[in-house]
Amino acid sequence: MIRLVFRLAACAAALLACGQTYGQDIDPDILKAQAGTYLVAPEDGRAGCRMTLETDMAIGGYSLSGQEACARPLPSLADASSWNFDGNGGLILIDPTRKVLARFVENEGSPMKTEDGKLFLLPAAPDGVDHLPTFDNLAGTWTMQRPDGERLCGVTLDGNVGTDGNAPLSLSGDCAANVAKLKLAVWHIEGFALTLMGGDGSSLGFDMRSDGNFDKSKQEGGKPLSLVRR
């Protein structure tokens, strides 16, 4: 099962251990670890925008770029001119007057989200992807196949999420033996990762690619495998 690893967790821990507070200088290694390109996107699957957290000094914190791409999908963030750590394990986006436009807080190992829970900050979004996958927009029929097109199984993802955060799935009756034996029964989304799970602890983890389909996570090992929407 794959889970996204977020750089901020380690950075925040180091900041708190050193008594770091908002407005003070940040250790260069911590700053470098946090810098990078992120997708900021609503949790409901609507389009978001990418921006890059940089390491140069700016008003209220450190420079960022790409925020002009937010003008249409997320206009409230288009005026962001810098970013900073907030001293409490979070990250803030700031405008030229030092007004905080968004505050992203830790989310139990999942992507950081704003305090109102409506926007997520995600690193390493696939190229060309501007939105989060959701149970609703992934629900439907898929084919599990090899890169050469060899079909292994049909998979139907149900969009009805249970209280455990998982949704049911069903497999076609002609699945290859190595897939059928997993007895996959539910699925889960975390960031851009999709995991199919069986009741006995078996699972298959997939990572979203730019065309909206999924490839088996490299962490799974074994032969390449894809989930392609029908």
Describe this structure in words.
With 230 residues, the protein is mostly beta strands. Helix content is 11%, strand content 40%. It has helices at 7-17, 28-34, 135-138, 177-180; strands at 36-42, 49-58, 61-65, 82-85, 91-94, 100-107, 110-114, 119-123, 140-145, 151-157, 167-171, 184-190, 193-198, 203-208, 214-216, 226-229. The protein has an 8-stranded antiparallel beta barrel. Mean pLDDT is 88; it is low at 1-10 and 12-23.
Give the structure's gist in a few sentences.
The chain is mostly beta strands. 11% of the residues lie in helices and 40% in strands.
Parts with pLDDT < 50 across at least 5 consecutive residues: 1-10, 12-23
Report the mean per-residue pLDDT as an integer: 88
User: Would you tell me the structural class of the helices and strands?
Assistant: mainly beta
Helix-strand pattern? HHEEEEEEEEHEEEHEEEEE
Query: What gyration radius follows from the Cα positions, in whole Å?
Result: 20 Å
Helix content: 10-25%
User: Could you describe the largest sheet, including whether it forms a barrel?
Assistant: 8 strands, antiparallel, barrel
Q: Strands across the major sheet, in which order?
A: 1-2-3-4-5-6-7-8
Topology (elements, then pairings):
Blueprint lengths: L6 H11 L10 H7 L1 E7 L6 E10 L2 E5 L16 E4 L5 E4 L5 E8 L2 E5 L4 E5 L11 H4 L1 E6 L5 E7 L9 E5 L5 H4 L3 E7 L2 E6 L4 E6 L5 E3 L9 E4 L1
Antiparallel strand pairs: 1-2, 1-8, 2-3, 3-4, 4-5, 5-6, 6-7, 7-8, 9-10, 9-16, 10-11, 11-12, 12-13, 13-14, 14-15, 15-16
Helix pairs in contact: 1-2
